[in-house]
Amino acid sequence: MHDRKRDRTGHYAFLKTGRAFFKALARELTRKPRVHSVDSFVHFYRDQGKACPSTTTVYRYIDAGLLELDNMTLPKKLRRRIKGYKNAHKRKNKKIYGGSTELRPAAVNDRTGVGHWEGDLVKGIRLADEPALMTLTERYSRTEIIVKIPDYHAGTCLKALQDTIDDYGAKEFESITFDNGSEFAKLSEIVGTQIYFAHPYSPWERGTNENANGLLREFFPKGKSLRAVTLVEIQAVQSALNHRPRRILNYLRPCDYYRCMA
How far, in Å, CA of 142 to CA of 249, rounded? Predict the structure, then answer.
Protein backbone atom coordinates (compact mmCIF):
# COMPACT_ATOMS: atom_id res chain seq x y z
CA MET A 1 0.00 0.00 0.00
CA HIS A 2 2.81 2.40 0.95
CA ASP A 3 4.66 1.73 -2.33
CA ARG A 4 1.51 2.37 -4.39
CA LYS A 5 0.92 5.69 -2.61
CA ARG A 6 4.56 6.65 -3.07
CA ASP A 7 4.42 5.94 -6.82
CA ARG A 8 1.49 8.33 -7.16
CA THR A 9 3.32 11.23 -5.48
CA GLY A 10 4.86 13.96 -7.60
CA HIS A 11 8.45 13.07 -6.81
CA TYR A 12 8.11 9.43 -7.90
CA ALA A 13 5.47 9.75 -10.60
CA PHE A 14 8.17 10.70 -13.11
CA LEU A 15 9.70 7.25 -12.76
CA LYS A 16 6.79 5.93 -14.84
CA THR A 17 5.80 8.95 -16.91
CA GLY A 18 9.28 10.23 -17.69
CA ARG A 19 10.87 7.17 -19.27
CA ALA A 20 11.76 9.05 -22.45
CA PHE A 21 13.52 11.72 -20.39
CA PHE A 22 15.53 9.20 -18.35
CA LYS A 23 16.54 7.31 -21.46
CA ALA A 24 17.73 10.54 -23.09
CA LEU A 25 19.52 11.61 -19.88
CA ALA A 26 21.39 8.31 -19.65
CA ARG A 27 22.43 8.61 -23.29
CA GLU A 28 23.78 12.14 -22.79
CA LEU A 29 25.60 11.47 -19.54
CA THR A 30 27.38 8.42 -20.94
CA ARG A 31 28.40 10.16 -24.16
CA LYS A 32 32.18 10.50 -24.50
CA PRO A 33 33.06 13.25 -24.17
CA ARG A 34 29.76 14.34 -22.70
CA VAL A 35 28.43 17.84 -23.20
CA HIS A 36 25.71 17.91 -20.55
CA SER A 37 25.60 17.74 -16.80
CA VAL A 38 22.41 16.59 -15.07
CA ASP A 39 21.40 20.20 -14.45
CA SER A 40 22.10 21.45 -17.97
CA PHE A 41 20.21 18.55 -19.55
CA VAL A 42 17.16 19.11 -17.32
CA HIS A 43 16.98 22.71 -18.56
CA PHE A 44 17.74 21.73 -22.15
CA TYR A 45 14.87 19.21 -22.05
CA ARG A 46 12.44 21.71 -20.53
CA ASP A 47 13.37 24.33 -23.12
CA GLN A 48 11.94 21.97 -25.71
CA GLY A 49 8.57 22.19 -23.96
CA LYS A 50 8.82 18.73 -22.42
CA ALA A 51 8.06 17.88 -18.80
CA CYS A 52 10.76 16.38 -16.60
CA PRO A 53 11.71 16.27 -12.92
CA SER A 54 13.89 18.90 -11.29
CA THR A 55 17.66 18.54 -11.02
CA THR A 56 17.31 17.84 -7.29
CA THR A 57 14.78 15.08 -7.94
CA VAL A 58 17.01 13.44 -10.55
CA TYR A 59 19.91 13.37 -8.08
CA ARG A 60 17.58 11.90 -5.46
CA TYR A 61 16.62 9.11 -7.88
CA ILE A 62 20.28 8.41 -8.64
CA ASP A 63 21.25 8.32 -4.96
CA ALA A 64 18.35 5.95 -4.26
CA GLY A 65 19.43 3.60 -7.06
CA LEU A 66 16.17 4.05 -8.96
CA LEU A 67 17.77 4.75 -12.36
CA GLU A 68 20.13 2.93 -14.68
CA LEU A 69 22.57 5.74 -13.93
CA ASP A 70 24.63 5.71 -10.75
CA ASN A 71 27.08 7.97 -9.00
CA MET A 72 29.97 6.50 -10.96
CA THR A 73 28.46 8.23 -14.01
CA LEU A 74 28.93 11.54 -12.21
CA PRO A 75 32.62 11.73 -11.34
CA LYS A 76 32.42 15.44 -10.54
CA LYS A 77 29.78 14.68 -7.91
CA LEU A 78 31.95 11.98 -6.33
CA ARG A 79 34.97 14.27 -6.17
CA ARG A 80 33.11 17.21 -4.68
CA ARG A 81 34.67 18.27 -1.41
CA ILE A 82 35.59 21.42 0.44
CA LYS A 83 39.23 22.30 -0.05
CA GLY A 84 41.18 23.42 2.92
CA TYR A 85 44.02 25.88 2.92
CA LYS A 86 45.58 25.05 6.27
CA ASN A 87 49.06 25.80 5.03
CA ALA A 88 48.19 29.01 3.23
CA HIS A 89 50.11 31.03 5.82
CA LYS A 90 53.39 29.25 5.12
CA ARG A 91 56.16 30.51 2.86
CA LYS A 92 54.81 34.04 2.68
CA ASN A 93 58.05 35.14 1.05
CA LYS A 94 57.59 32.99 -2.05
CA LYS A 95 58.64 34.96 -5.12
CA ILE A 96 55.93 36.49 -7.33
CA TYR A 97 56.95 36.41 -11.00
CA GLY A 98 55.19 39.57 -12.17
CA GLY A 99 52.24 41.87 -11.54
CA SER A 100 49.88 40.50 -8.90
CA THR A 101 46.09 40.40 -9.01
CA GLU A 102 45.52 43.66 -7.14
CA LEU A 103 47.00 45.44 -10.16
CA ARG A 104 44.30 44.13 -12.49
CA PRO A 105 41.83 46.69 -13.87
CA ALA A 106 38.29 46.74 -12.50
CA ALA A 107 36.97 45.19 -15.74
CA VAL A 108 38.70 41.93 -14.82
CA ASN A 109 37.18 41.63 -11.37
CA ASP A 110 33.77 42.88 -12.53
CA ARG A 111 33.61 40.58 -15.57
CA THR A 112 32.33 43.49 -17.63
CA GLY A 113 33.51 42.15 -20.97
CA VAL A 114 35.28 39.32 -22.76
CA GLY A 115 39.03 39.01 -23.13
CA HIS A 116 40.20 38.45 -19.56
CA TRP A 117 41.44 34.92 -18.92
CA GLU A 118 42.77 32.70 -16.16
CA GLY A 119 45.28 29.92 -16.73
CA ASP A 120 47.01 26.95 -15.18
CA LEU A 121 48.24 23.43 -15.96
CA VAL A 122 46.36 20.16 -15.62
CA LYS A 123 48.91 17.43 -14.98
CA GLY A 124 48.53 13.69 -15.35
CA ILE A 125 51.69 12.56 -13.59
CA ARG A 126 53.48 15.19 -11.54
CA LEU A 127 56.90 14.96 -13.19
CA ALA A 128 58.32 17.99 -14.96
CA ASP A 129 59.24 15.95 -18.05
CA GLU A 130 55.71 14.53 -18.42
CA PRO A 131 53.17 16.15 -20.77
CA ALA A 132 50.57 18.48 -19.30
CA LEU A 133 47.57 20.48 -20.49
CA MET A 134 47.73 24.24 -20.42
CA THR A 135 44.21 25.48 -19.78
CA LEU A 136 42.85 28.98 -20.34
CA THR A 137 39.39 29.96 -19.11
CA GLU A 138 37.72 33.23 -20.11
CA ARG A 139 36.22 34.90 -17.05
CA TYR A 140 33.10 36.36 -18.66
CA SER A 141 31.95 33.52 -20.90
CA ARG A 142 33.72 30.52 -19.27
CA THR A 143 35.12 29.65 -22.70
CA GLU A 144 37.89 27.06 -22.49
CA ILE A 145 41.11 26.66 -24.49
CA ILE A 146 43.16 23.50 -23.90
CA VAL A 147 46.70 23.07 -25.23
CA LYS A 148 48.86 19.98 -24.75
CA ILE A 149 52.49 20.71 -23.92
CA PRO A 150 55.33 18.14 -23.93
CA ASP A 151 56.57 19.04 -20.44
CA TYR A 152 56.03 21.82 -17.96
CA HIS A 153 59.36 23.55 -17.85
CA ALA A 154 59.11 27.35 -17.76
CA GLY A 155 60.42 27.76 -21.32
CA THR A 156 57.88 25.27 -22.68
CA CYS A 157 55.01 27.10 -20.98
CA LEU A 158 56.23 30.42 -22.34
CA LYS A 159 56.35 29.10 -25.92
CA ALA A 160 52.99 27.32 -25.68
CA LEU A 161 51.21 30.42 -24.39
CA GLN A 162 52.85 32.73 -26.92
CA ASP A 163 51.90 30.36 -29.76
CA THR A 164 48.31 30.25 -28.51
CA ILE A 165 48.05 34.05 -28.33
CA ASP A 166 49.55 34.36 -31.80
CA ASP A 167 47.21 31.69 -33.23
CA TYR A 168 43.99 33.19 -31.85
CA GLY A 169 45.10 36.80 -32.14
CA ALA A 170 46.32 39.10 -29.40
CA LYS A 171 43.07 41.11 -29.57
CA GLU A 172 41.29 38.17 -27.88
CA PHE A 173 43.52 38.40 -24.80
CA GLU A 174 43.31 41.58 -22.75
CA SER A 175 44.83 39.86 -19.74
CA ILE A 176 45.60 36.40 -18.35
CA THR A 177 45.98 35.57 -14.66
CA PHE A 178 48.14 32.59 -13.81
CA ASP A 179 49.04 30.63 -10.73
CA ASN A 180 52.36 31.61 -9.15
CA GLY A 181 54.02 28.24 -9.89
CA SER A 182 57.64 28.10 -11.03
CA GLU A 183 56.56 26.70 -14.42
CA PHE A 184 55.16 30.17 -15.17
CA ALA A 185 58.29 32.06 -14.14
CA LYS A 186 58.95 33.32 -17.69
CA LEU A 187 55.44 34.43 -18.61
CA SER A 188 56.22 38.08 -17.99
CA GLU A 189 58.08 37.86 -21.32
CA ILE A 190 54.81 37.23 -23.19
CA VAL A 191 54.02 39.66 -26.01
CA GLY A 192 50.45 40.67 -26.85
CA THR A 193 48.69 40.53 -23.48
CA GLN A 194 49.10 41.56 -19.85
CA ILE A 195 50.04 38.72 -17.50
CA TYR A 196 49.06 38.80 -13.83
CA PHE A 197 49.90 36.31 -11.10
CA ALA A 198 47.74 35.12 -8.22
CA HIS A 199 49.24 35.43 -4.77
CA PRO A 200 50.92 32.28 -3.44
CA TYR A 201 48.42 29.73 -2.10
CA SER A 202 45.45 31.81 -3.26
CA PRO A 203 43.70 29.70 -5.93
CA TRP A 204 40.42 31.57 -5.38
CA GLU A 205 41.99 34.53 -7.19
CA ARG A 206 41.61 32.48 -10.38
CA GLY A 207 38.65 30.40 -9.30
CA THR A 208 37.00 30.29 -12.75
CA ASN A 209 39.92 28.30 -14.11
CA GLU A 210 40.11 26.17 -10.96
CA ASN A 211 36.50 25.13 -11.48
CA ALA A 212 37.08 24.39 -15.17
CA ASN A 213 40.09 22.25 -14.33
CA GLY A 214 37.89 20.28 -11.95
CA LEU A 215 35.55 19.55 -14.86
CA LEU A 216 38.52 18.43 -16.96
CA ARG A 217 39.46 15.78 -14.41
CA GLU A 218 36.50 13.74 -15.60
CA PHE A 219 38.30 13.33 -18.91
CA PHE A 220 41.93 13.48 -17.77
CA PRO A 221 42.22 11.89 -14.30
CA LYS A 222 45.11 12.44 -11.93
CA GLY A 223 47.86 9.84 -11.91
CA LYS A 224 47.41 8.85 -15.56
CA SER A 225 50.01 9.95 -18.08
CA LEU A 226 48.87 12.30 -20.82
CA ARG A 227 51.40 10.98 -23.36
CA ALA A 228 48.80 9.06 -25.34
CA VAL A 229 46.21 11.87 -25.38
CA THR A 230 45.70 13.08 -28.95
CA LEU A 231 44.87 16.48 -30.38
CA VAL A 232 41.55 15.11 -31.59
CA GLU A 233 40.63 14.02 -28.04
CA ILE A 234 41.61 17.39 -26.60
CA GLN A 235 39.59 19.29 -29.20
CA ALA A 236 36.57 17.07 -28.52
CA VAL A 237 36.72 17.80 -24.78
CA GLN A 238 37.24 21.52 -25.40
CA SER A 239 34.22 21.59 -27.72
CA ALA A 240 32.09 19.64 -25.23
CA LEU A 241 32.82 22.11 -22.42
CA ASN A 242 32.27 25.13 -24.65
CA HIS A 243 28.88 23.75 -25.72
CA ARG A 244 27.70 22.83 -22.19
CA PRO A 245 24.86 25.09 -20.97
CA ARG A 246 25.86 26.75 -17.69
CA ARG A 247 23.60 27.82 -14.87
CA ILE A 248 25.79 30.86 -14.20
CA LEU A 249 25.15 31.96 -17.83
CA ASN A 250 21.38 31.47 -17.49
CA TYR A 251 21.80 28.14 -19.31
CA LEU A 252 23.44 29.62 -22.36
CA ARG A 253 26.65 28.00 -23.56
CA PRO A 254 30.12 29.59 -23.46
CA CYS A 255 30.16 29.48 -27.26
CA ASP A 256 26.98 31.58 -27.29
CA TYR A 257 28.92 34.30 -25.49
CA TYR A 258 32.21 33.89 -27.29
CA ARG A 259 31.44 32.65 -30.78
CA CYS A 260 34.94 32.95 -32.15
CA MET A 261 36.29 30.52 -29.55
CA ALA A 262 33.65 27.78 -30.00
Answer: 9
**Bridging pattern class, strands 132-138 and 194-197:** unpaired
**pTM (two decimals):** 0.83
| CB 20, CB 28: distance < 8 Å | no
Domain count, the chain: 2
Q: DSSP secondary-structure letter at 14?
A: H
Q: Are residues 108 and 72 part of one domain? A: no
The β-bridge partners of 176 are 117, 195
Cα 217 from Cα 232, distance rounded (Å): 17
Q: How far apart are the first and last CA of the chain?
A: 53
Q: For 218-235, write each residue's pLDDT tens digit.
A: 999 999 999 999 999 999
Is residue 74 located within the same domain as residue 158? no
The HSE-up count of residue 258 (CA atoms within 13 Å, CB side) is 26
